[in-house]
Amino acid sequence: MPVAKNEKKGFNKLLVISFDGFRWDYDHDVETPNLDYITKAGVKAKYITPPFVTMTSPSHFTTITGRWVEEHGVIHNMMFNPQTLKKFSFKETQNKTEWWDNGVLPLWITAQNQGRKTGSFHYPGGGANYSGQSVYRSLVESLSHPDSNETEWRENIDIVLKWFTEEDFDFVTLYYGEPDQVGHLKGPETEERRIIIRQIDRTIGYLINAIETHNLKDKLNVIITSDHGMTTIKKAPNVQEILLSKYINFKNLTKFDIVDYGGHGMILPKPGKEEELYQALKNAHPHLHVYKKEEFPVHLHYAKNDRILPIIVYADLGYNINGRIIIYVNKGDHGFDNINMDMKTIFRAFGPDFKKNYIAEPFDSIHIYPLMCKLLGVNPEPNNGSLAITQEMLLGTLDPSQPQPDHSEEITFMVLIAVGVVLSILVVIFIVYVPYTIIKRKKGPNQEVEKMNRTQPETNF
Ligand SMILES: [Zn+2]
Question: Does 455 reside within a domain?
């Protein structure tokens, strides 16, 4: 059956919803009829891998830019300044352009510059300006925003769908702070977490119905994803907790630090103290990894950024990095190495351009960006993703005339091969034909014309 298109524009609208901290397997121990319905009606990836560091702002910004964290520069949830010693919380950063705008354009801006109408509803980074441009419509969460009000969740869906129907928006990102909040406060293996997953599933059911009501079913693609998973924090007396002050004297060795923030931390040593600090921490705890910035594993695509402090520490799954005293209260956390299954997250998609009942193999979240560009017919910015990873989930109904991701090198190579083949064939024909023609000509010109005409299509690639 032909897929109904937005005839006017040649592409369908796109809604991206992020449920913060939705671990890849949260639907395994809860009834989720609406998520199951989406799997049948669309695409489900077995799981996806967020970038290192598995934190909210860095990961969301990778999704919306297609760039590794070290390239887009939003390297932590907190904005900080090691000179002034100031720190700003995740929510406080949301309007701070200086934290988000590091020369990499998020898709909202790129799409706007190519004629799309875009909006961000609470999505991290949506409130900042990029190269002086703001997202056409952006709602930013207030500092006291409640995370789990189901009525508000539905109202937000109504608002966003009206943006699509009444104001002809093309691309909107919608963010919810759950199940992250419950995961932190209660832990991922709790009834409270299962309750919030049921609430999310009901909300998705509400969305499916609302899409029908708004007559958007054949015009709107929907991606549901998240930024990281969640794991249960290991505490004494079950384990020996990591407490840095057992190994270093903060006052003597450090100028500035970001610790007590889950399993990841960074330290700026006092001048001349870097080696002493490094040596003191290097083998201090069996579950603590300590790196000089320049020796940090390259495959994590994290440390090559000016904002990264000289010493990076991260802990094995479930260990919090405590600084001077143990004040940490979370039952669950993320921020650990993205190789851990507990850090993996979800990807679902449905709509007119997606296959139905399709299970995709796991992939890195960085590949969502070129997929979104493809769906919106937008020329991507330079990025670290690859459409080849994600395009299998598409029906192939997208307008081939729309801008394609830049594969110009491949295309040039293929054109060269094609030209080579054509030239070779022409040479062969010439070699075979010229003597043949000379012989034929002796027999009469009319026959010759007929031959040429029949030969023509064979060389016409
Ligand atoms: Zn998060």
Answer: no
CA distance 234 to 318: 5
Q: What is the CATH number of the domain that holds 315?
A: 3.30.1360.180
Both tokens of residue 334?
Answer: 């993320």
The answer on 122 and 84 residing in a single domain is: yes
Query: What CATH code is carried by the domain that includes residue 149?
Result: 3.40.720.10
- Rounded to the nearest whole angstrom, what is the distance from the C-alpha of residue 242 to the centroid of ligand 1? 23
Helix (H) or strand (E) holding 440: helix 408-441
In this structure, the answer to whether residues 110 and 252 fall within a common structural domain is no
Query: How many CB atoms lie under 10 A from the CB of residue 426?
Result: 12
Give 198 Cα–ligand 1 centroid separation in angstroms: 19
The answer on 298 and 209 residing in a single domain is no
Instruction: Clarify whether residues 219 and 121 are in a common domain.
Output: yes
Choice among 32, 49, 54, 56 that is catalytic: 56
Domain boundaries, position 221: 13-230+337-393
- CA distances for 299 relative to 69, 75, 338, 339, angstroms: 12, 16, 11, 11
Structural domains of the chain, count: 3
Residue that is last in its domain, among 329, 346, 368: 329
Task: List the chain pLDDT tens, one digit each, 461 residues.
Answer: 334 444 567 899 999 999 999 999 999 999 999 999 999 999 999 999 999 999 999 999 999 999 999 999 999 999 999 999 999 999 999 999 999 999 999 999 999 999 999 999 999 999 999 999 999 999 999 888 888 999 999 999 999 999 999 999 999 999 999 999 999 999 999 999 999 999 999 999 999 999 999 999 999 999 999 999 999 999 999 999 999 999 999 999 999 999 999 999 999 999 999 999 999 999 999 999 999 999 999 999 999 999 999 999 999 999 999 999 998 889 999 999 999 999 999 999 999 999 999 999 999 999 999 999 999 999 999 999 999 999 999 998 676 555 544 444 444 455 556 666 666 666 655 555 545 444 333 333 333 333 333 333 332 33
Q: Is the peptide bond before 269 cis (omega within 30 degrees of 0)?
A: no
Cα-to-centroid distance, 443 and ligand 1 (Å): 83
Type and span of the H or E element at 182: helix 180-186
Q: Same domain, yes or no, for 424 and 363?
A: no
Q: Record the tokens describing residue 380, joined without a space.
A: 């991507």
**Residue 99 shares a structural domain with residue 211:** yes
Q: At what angle do helices 445-459 and 408-441 cross, to 10 degrees?
A: 170
Q: Domain check: are 323 and 349 in the same one?
A: no
| 456 within a domain of the structure (yes/no) | no
Task: Specify the pTM.
Answer: 0.85
Question: Is residue 56 among the annotated active site residues?
Answer: yes
Interval between CA 379 and ligand 1 midpoint (Å): 28
User: Rounded to the nearest whole angstrom, what is the distance from the C-alpha of residue 232 to the centroid of ligand 1?
Assistant: 15
Between the CA of 230 and the centroid of ligand 1 the distance, in Å, is 9
Question: Could you tell me if 272 and 415 lie in one domain?
Answer: no
> From CA 401, how far away is CA 171, in angstroms rounded?
20
